[in-house]
Amino acid sequence: MSVLQAIILAIVEGLTEFLPVSSTGHMIIVSTLMGLNENEFTKIFEVNIQFGTILSVIILYYRRFFRSIDFYYRLFVAFLPAAVIGLLLSDFIDALLENVVVVAISLLLGGIVLIFIDRVFQGGDDDSSHVPYPKALVIGFFQCLAMIPGVSRSAATIIGGQAQGLSRKAAAEFSFFLAVPTMAAASGYKLLKDHEALSVDNLPILLLGNLVGFVVAMLAIRFFIDYLTRHGFKVFGYYRIVLGLLILGLLAAGVDLQI
Asked: Which of helix, strand or coil describes residue 127?
C-alpha cells in the first residue's frame, strides 16, 4: 500500500464512519478500485485506522468524557449487547462480511428507511449525557444491527436513540460516544487476531492512516451534527440507495469485489 492509497482510504474512513452511509460499502469500492481488496494488510488497515476516528470523538467531546464516572457506566451498558453478541457470532459475522451482495442489499434497504425515518421521529430529549440505563441498553441492541455488513452503525444507533425519545442531535451524539468503546474493542480484537499482517515497514502507513482519519473525522462530525439538526436523514438515504445500486452494478459487470 502506497502513502497516497493510505491517505485516500483514511479520508474515506474518516468521512463515512460517523455518517449513516456505511463505511464498509465505501471501503469495498475504494479498495477495489485501487486494487487493494485482496491485500491482507488492507483489511487490518481499514479496521485499525478507526483508532484515529475514535480519538476525534474524545477530543471534540472531551468535556463529556471526563466529567462523570456515571457517563462511562451508561456507555458500558449500551456497549454490552455488541460485546456479547459479537463474541458469540463472530464467525457468522465474518462470513456475512465476505458477502458483498448482503452489503449492497443492506445499503438499499437502509436507504429506504432513512428517506422516511424523519416522519416517524420528531423532537425529543436533547440530553445525550444522561440517557437512562434501560434506554441505553435498547440503543445498544439497535447497534447490533450494524453487525450485518452495510447496515451503518451510526444510522442504527441514531435511530435507536430516537426510538428511545432522544432528539436527532442527542441521538447522534450518543452514537458518537458509543462508537468509542465499540470501535476500540473491534479494532483491538482485529489487531490481536491479525497482528502477523503488521511489520516494521507498514507500521508508519498505519500511523499515517490514523492521523488522517482523525482530522477528517473531526470535520465530518461537525458537519454531520449541523446538517442532521437542520435537514434530517433523507439525503443520506438517497445516497445509500445509489451506492447499493453501484455495488450491484459492479457485481453484474463481473468486477471482483472483496472485503
From this structure: coil
